Amino acid sequence: MKPTFIDLFAGCGGLSEGFVQAGFEPLAHVEMDKAACFSLRTRMAFHWLTKHKKANLYADYLKGAITREELYSKVPKHIIDSVINTEISDKTIESIFAQIDTILGNKQLDLIVGGPPCQAYSLIGRGATKRIGGMQDDKRNWLFKYYIEFLKKYKPKHFVFENVLGLLSAKDRNGEKYFDTILQEFDKNGYSAVPEIVSADLYGVPQSRKRVIIVGTRKDLAPIKLHLSPKKLSARIADLFADLPAIQAGDKTKNTVKAKKGCKELYDLRLKDDFPITLHKSRPHNERDLEIYRIAVEKWNNRHLRLNYNDLPNKLQTHRNRTAFTDRFKVVAGDLLASHTVVAHISRDGHYYIHPDIKQNRSITPREAARLQTFPDNYCFESADGKECLSSAFKQIGNAVPVYLAKQIAESIKKDIKNSEN
Predict the structure, then answer these.
(1) Is 380 annotated in the active site?
(2) First to last CA, the chain
(3) Hey, which CATH number is domain 237-399, 1.10.3290, 3.90.120, 1.10.287, 2.10.260?
(4) Which residues of 44-78 are buried (b: 16+ CB within 10 A; e: fewer)?
(5) Which of 16, 40, 13 is nearest to 26 (CA)?
(6) How do beta strands 191-199 and 111-114 pair?
(7) At what angle do helices 93-104 and 144-154 cross, to 10 degrees?
(8) Where in the chain is the domain with CATH 3.90.120?
(9) CATH code 3.40.50.150 region(s) in the chain
(10) For residues 10 and 117, what is the distance between their CA atoms, to the nearest angstrom?
(11) From CA 247, how far away is CA 58, in angstroms rounded?
(12) DSSP one-letter code for 132
């Protein structure tokens, strides 16, 4: 029997996908964002169809031959209904419990995974709102209490709680650290919790991304902890992008593209397969930004220097703020093994994620961003209305947990669970 889990604050499913790849069975996902929920439903459809040797139907969907509704009609209704599109709140939690109770039936729940939205704990978020009193009044600070309620209700054997590094230092209005409060709540409700700081690039993810991972175990069971083995990619970022068709800023390509044979790491990370590739499309950029991109790429590729906004010619400087975010234009360095962190701000503009190939002179595509987050190329990032939306895809990708990191976390937990049961 596969160990089972539910995913809270699931986003588009990066954490969940890693657990599925490691052999866990997802029973339910809870997420408030409508577009992300469609991404989750489509992914659940993918897994069911591939398991039942009907992957051709999924390929048809990627190519636009069938609609999203037609795709969903090809899988059992309970697969689609297992994604619950609801904000977790005092008003909705009992309804969510009822839906999950129906989904679970007589099945045992082994694990709860997930982490509340991280913006309220992030250092960037606190800095941006300092002038209006910080983020102590942001209701998202307290979403962890709902996570606790799910632990109390379902009493899973274990849990995985993921969040940003800023969680370690964020404080409430009384000066108490949220992190300390969270650990106390886990303990009070019957769970031993082991927190760790994990840097994704140390474990084979082509991205510098640090996160707090808290692994919890019910106190009547032997506690488990993460046992991750350091891994280093040998491929550079440019190698991970090289097989994708070269495009220019604003290029409108077909619904899907074909790529050349890629480097070994693309296959080792399970990114690349025979499915059509979607969302390899670039935003349009104005001429001023394209000139800045050229300068930024030349500085990095020729001298390994990052662009300081204040060093630009005056005619290219249009931002009034010349003291903060002077690195607002940044190249995804093609000659490094890991990119800088992909965050949800990529949905607003691509200035912080400039493609390293000066001949293409553009920001990276959603598919390239997804590769940095180790999502398989066959992963479909949906919009709320079913129409292709690059900004929606970027937001989902930036908010996600890297799939390959999630898989290693899951494999470590699965091994400990197996050992404890023997």
Answers:
(1) no
(2) 15
(3) 3.90.120
(4) bbbbbbeeeeebebbbebbeeebebeebbebbeee
(5) 16
(6) unpaired
(7) 40
(8) 237-399
(9) 4-231+401-421
(10) 9
(11) 26
(12) G
Q: Which are the contacts of 135, defined by CB distance < 8 A and separation ≥ 6?
A: 119, 120, 125, 126, 129, 141, 170
**Which CATH superfamily, name and number, covers 4-231+401-421?**
Vaccinia Virus protein VP39 (3.40.50.150)
Please give the Cα distance from 307 to 44 (Å, whole number): 42
Catalytic residue among 118, 263, 380, 389: 118
Rg (CA), the chain: 22
Alpha-carbon distance of 266 to 368, in angstroms, equals: 12
**How far apart are alpha carbons 204 and 34 in whole angstroms?**
31
Tokens 């083995």 belong to which residue?
A: 229
Residues 6+ apart with CB under 8 A from 170: 120, 121, 126, 135, 141, 177, 178, 179
Q: What is the pLDDT along the chain (422 residues), one digit of tens a residue?
A: 899 999 999 999 999 999 999 999 999 999 999 999 999 999 999 999 999 999 999 999 999 999 999 999 999 999 999 999 999 999 999 999 999 999 999 999 999 999 888 555 555 544 444 433 454 555 556 899 999 999 999 999 999 999 999 899 888 888 889 899 999 999 999 999 999 999 999 999 999 999 999 999 999 999 998 999 999 889 999 999 999 999 999 987 678 888 999 999 999 999 999 999 999 999 999 999 999 999 999 999 999 999 999 999 999 998 877 777 788 999 999 999 999 999 999 999 999 999 999 999 999 999 999 999 999 999 999 999 999 999 999 999 999 999 999 999 999 999 988 877 76
Place of tokens 């590739």: 277
Tokens representing residue 142 in the block: 């307290």
Q: How far, in whole angstroms, is CA 376 from its chain's centroid?
A: 12
